[in-house]
Write a structure and sequence with these properties.
Shape: rod-shaped
CATH superfamily of the largest domain: Efflux pump adaptor protein, beta barrel domain
Order of helices and strands: HEEEEHHEEEEEEEE
Number of helices: 3
Oligomer: single chain
CATH architecture of the largest domain: Beta Barrel
CATH topology of the largest domain: Elongation Factor Tu (Ef-tu), domain 3
Radius of gyration: 51 Å
Distance between the termini: 88 Å
CATH class of the largest domain: Mainly Beta
Structural class: alpha+beta
């Protein structure tokens, strides 16, 4: 007679417990191995990336920001733009009251007219002096003919007197006529000489008058130029920024009234540590993101590397030769130009913060 034995539940539990613990240990080992492998892969990738790239978050967008300032002083008549308004180069932004400027133009016009009248008078005096000199020369020629005639008459009468054909009184009259003609000739020659000297004098007056006319014309051109400065225009195309002018305000020449920030010409200045510039060169590619558009990657290239550290341009540059020396890693600005055309949907504005990564290998 045979007896069939069956295992109790307690015995089955004791056998299954070690098997499940072993499975968990194997699974944990596999998980740890996968995690270690993943971390190693990520570490290798990050090491490879760090070996071929240099990055910094000390970077910002730069651009052309042109100040708008008047060239003449005066009261503001009209302001034609508002904050953040888009303007084009040459567009009139504001106007200065031109009443005083108009009066200066009229004054300069009157001064020019007076100088031109003086010039015409001087030119007329030249013509008069030349005519007087010509008349004096003609008088000299007439007196010269008279003098020659009297000399001839005197020689003839002297010969006749020797023959007794004329009296002593007649010879004396002929001699007197010859002396008179000679004296008149000398006087007319002196007058002619004086008249000729007046010609260069009047020429000098004309030259002086011409100089005055040129000076007054220049003053008029300057007054008109100043009048044109009454309309203050935009130096570049862009957005109006930092507007600080209102109608009725008195402004000085050279006073900044507002600024215009260009929209289509931006670049990045990244301040890399000096230890990051070992392999950095002009022309290397750059990827960067702006804090405003974290999901947009912009592309560029290194345009230039500054010749000095940023600290050298500080208000009080460090002087390591005085006091206790503490070595501080310096930063050098690197200019980065955009490789892609400007994206109207993601405009870069001066002052934006960016994270830049340069591929150095």
């Amino acid at each position: 007679m045979s007896t069939t034995l069956s295992k109790s539940p307690a015995i089955l539990g004791e056998t299954a417990q070690p098997a499940s613990t072993a499975v968990r240990r194997v699974a944990a080992g596999i998980a740890i191995t996968v995690a270690v492998a993943a971390l190693a892969y990520v570490g290798v990738k990050r090491w490879q990336f760090a070996a071929a790239h240099e990055d910094t978050d000390d970077a910002q967008v730069e651009g052309h920001v042109s100040p708008v300032l008047p060239r003449v002083a005066g009261y503001v008549g009209r302001v034609l733009v508002n904050d953040n308004q888009r303007v084009t180069a040459g567009q009139v932004l504001l106007e200065i009251d031109g009443t005083e400027l108009d009066l200066k133009v009229q004054e300069a016009q009157a001064a020019l007219a007076s100088a031109e009248a003086d010039l015409r008078t001087a030119e007329a005096s030249v013509a008069n002096a030349q005519a007087m000199a010509a008349a004096a020369d003609a008088n000299v020629q007439t007196a010269l003919v008279r003098d020659r005639k009297t000399v001839s008459d005197l020689a003839r009468d002297a010969a006749l007197f020797k023959t007794g054909a004329i009296t002593d009184s007649q010879l004396t009259d002929t001699q007197a006529a010859a002396d008179t003609a000679k004296a008149q000739l000398e006087a007319l020659r002196q007058d002619a000489s004086a008249s000729r000297l007046q010609v260069p004098v009047t020429d000098a007056r004309v030259a002086a008058a011409q100089t005055q006319v040129a000076e007054k014309r220049s003053s008029l051109d300057f007054a008109r130029l100043q009048r044109s400065y009454g309309s203050v225009t935009a130096p570049i195309s862009g957005l109006v920024s930092r507007k600080s002018v209102e109608p009725g305000q008195f402004v000085q020449a050279g006073q900044t009234l507002l600024s215009v920030a260009a929209e289509d010409d931006a670049w990045v200045v990244a301040n890399f540590k000096e230890t990051q510039l070992t392999r950095m060169k002009v022309g290397q590619t750059v990827d960067f993101t702006a804090d405003t558009y974290p999901d947009v990657i912009f592309h560029g290239k290194v345009d230039s590397i500054a010749g000095t550290t940023g600290a050298r341009f500080a208000l009080l540059p460090p002087d390591n030769s005085t006091g206790n020396f503490v070595k501080v890693t310096q930063r050098i600005p690197v200019k980065i130009l955009l490789a892609d055309p400007a994206d109207p949907a993601h405009p870069l504005r001066p002052g934006m913060s960016v994270d830049a990564v340069v591929q150095v290998r």
